[in-house]
Design goal:
It is a single chain. By secondary structure, this protein is of the alpha/beta class. It has 3 domains: about 120 residues, Periplasmic binding protein-like II (D-Maltodextrin-Binding Protein, domain 2, 3-Layer(aba) Sandwich), CATH 3.40.190.10; about 90 residues, 3-Layer(aba) Sandwich (D-Maltodextrin-Binding Protein, domain 2), CATH 3.40.190; about 70 residues, Alpha-Beta Plaits (2-Layer Sandwich). It contains 9 helices and 15 strands. The strands form 3 sheets. It has a 6-stranded mixed β-sheet, with helices on both faces. Strands 8-7-9-6-10 form a 5-stranded mixed β-sheet. It starts with 7 loop residues before the first strand and ends in a 6-residue tail after the last strand.
């Protein structure tokens, strides 16, 4: 195979988002080779080369042109002051465990006397998100000292001299496990697909980045959807249509009528939220639908 003349350098996050991101890439059609020895990896597309970076540093390397594009958190773009220096191509709503934004929260031990942000005047706050946290306190007119925490931030909430922490949470389970109480939300964050501004001006790279963004979004949209097929007697068409989610119109086609078959049948196909499948399928069966097939989706392109 001839070596491609153009290569798009794509940064993917190492660490907590790595597994979810590699799964997303595979479902988008850009499966990344499995390699624990190298942070430079090939993909199913020979024109896309992946470089693995920490999410915390991704926006810096995109800004400086080491990468043409990358996936990182809105939080780290803000922390690195890179928002005006990179192009945000798409907001991609996925995290480590769920398809939801994450939150950076100000938290204290349950037994702490601190009840609001103002109670932290003159206190010491530990966090990885130092610049954003300092800006948060400044906006509230509170003079708190903010210091960098090198991991395991939730444990430091009870260190002598530490008044509070600012840490990221997706479900709140870690905070509860460490008996911590939320005081305020510092910021919401989600994954963003960003591009180097010079790369964005290059026609070939821009097309490549836009196409990748479209397919990544399609893979995210498909994550919580399923496809459903079923056969329905023509006499029940209106009844079955009324049972389906109103925002998802079904594709309906007439099935070939077999010899001596008295009733005509229709083939229905529709996309619906996966959360509806559990309650809807038994109802459809009881209503007279048959041959019901539910299948996962790889991508949904709107």
């Amino acid at each position: 195979m001839r070596k491609p003349t153009n290569i798009l350098k794509l940064g993917l996050p190492k660490g907590s988002l790595e597994k979810a991101t590699l799964d997303l890439m595979a479902r988008a059609g850009y499966e990344v080779e499995d390699s624990e020895r190298s942070d430079i990896r090939k993909t199913a597309d020979p024109e896309v080369e992946v470089l693995m970076f920490r999410a915390q540093e991704m926006s810096i390397f995109v800004k400086d042109g080491v990468l043409d594009a990358g996936l990182t958190g809105k939080d780290w773009i803000a922390e690195n002051r890179c928002k005006s220096h990179v192009r945000v191509v798409r907001d991609l709503l996925y995290a480590k465990a769920r398809m939801v934004p994450v939150r950076w929260v100000l938290a204290v031990p349950e037994e702490s006397k601190v009840r609001n942000v103002e109670d932290l005047e003159g206190g010491l706050v530990a966090t990885e998100l130092v610049k954003v946290t300092r800006q948060f306190f400044a906006s509230r007119g509170v003079a708190a000292k903010v210091e960098y925490s090198w991991g395991s931030t939730e444990i430091k909430a009870r260190f002598p001299g530490v008044s509070a922490i600012v840490d990221v949470t997706e479900t709140g389970s870690t905070l509860k496990a460490n008996s911590l109480r939320e005081i305020a939300t510092v910021m919401y964050s989600n994954t963003q697909f960003i591009a180097n501004r010079n790369s964005w001006q290059d026609r070939w790279r821009r097309d490549k980045i836009e196409n990748l963004g479209l397919l990544l979004q399609g893979a995210i949209d498909a994550k919580e959807m399923v496809g459903l097929k079923m056969n329905v007697p023509t006499t029940l068409e209106n009844k079955i249509v009324a049972m389906l989610p109103a925002e998802h119109s079904p594709t309906v086609s007439l099935l070939h009528k077999k010899e001596n078959q008295k009733e005509a049948w229709l083939a229905f196909e529709v996309i619906l939220p996966a959360a509806r499948e559990r309650e809807l399928v038994p109802k459809l069966k009881k209503a007279g639908a048959s041959g019901i097939i539910v299948y996962p989706l790889n991508k949904v392109i709107h």
